[in-house]
Amino acid sequence: MIPNDQHIHINERTLERIFYDYFQKLTYQAGETLGEHLSSKDIVLEVFQKLWEGRAALKFSDEKKLAGYLRLLTQNACIDHIRKRNTRKKANLHLAYRWEVLQMPEDSVLATVKSARLQEQTIMTLSAALEKLPVQQRRVVKMDLLEKSSAEIAASLQITEGCVRGYRAKALASLRKMLGAL
């Protein structure tokens, strides 16, 4: 433990020791967060680079706080990586869709546009109806739409699976009433 008036100073030797102690752990954390391990080493290397570049402004009273900071940096870097990856996927899907539309005959394009508008209106109507449900029913239905199992929903909401089934049934009955005119 470092005395209260002292802090960990990050110099080359300290960084080397910290790197040796935490690189594998942080790489594992990044791999688990990303769901793949190919990018995890690069992300953790960037975390250590940020640590080195910002060392003058950083003060840690003990190694536990430094470790927490490294885990947080790693988690944030993973989130940024996932956002960039998802943005690229969306852009690629959008381009593929536009290419597909350009290859279609004109009457097919009009039918596709009408279908997309109808789908968008349906989603907006369903979303508005979901917001009118009681909180627990809404939570269960939203998690159900994310393809969570009853057990996963129950664990997440800290209720029984029977309650999940009950909330789901009541919510679906309410949605049928609200959306019956569609």
UniProtKB/TrEMBL annotation:
Organism superkingdom: Bacteria
TM region positions: none
Record key words, sorted: DNA-binding, Sigma factor, Transcription, Transcription regulation
Stretches assigned to the RNA polymerase sigma factor 70 region 4 type domain: 125-175
Annotated ranges, domain RNA polymerase sigma-70 region: 26-86
UniProt key word DNA damage: no
Gene3D superfamilies found in the cross-reference section: 1.10.1740.10, Winged helix-like DNA-binding domain superfamily/Winged helix DNA-binding domain
GO terms for MF: DNA binding; sigma factor activity
GO biological process: DNA-templated transcription initiation
NCBIfam families in UniProt: sigma70-ECF
Family: Belongs to the sigma-70 factor family. ECF subfamily.
Protein name stated in the entry: RNA polymerase sigma factor (Sigma-70 family)
Organism (species): Dinghuibacter silviterrae
Taxonomic classification: Bacteria, Pseudomonadati, Bacteroidota, Chitinophagia, Chitinophagales
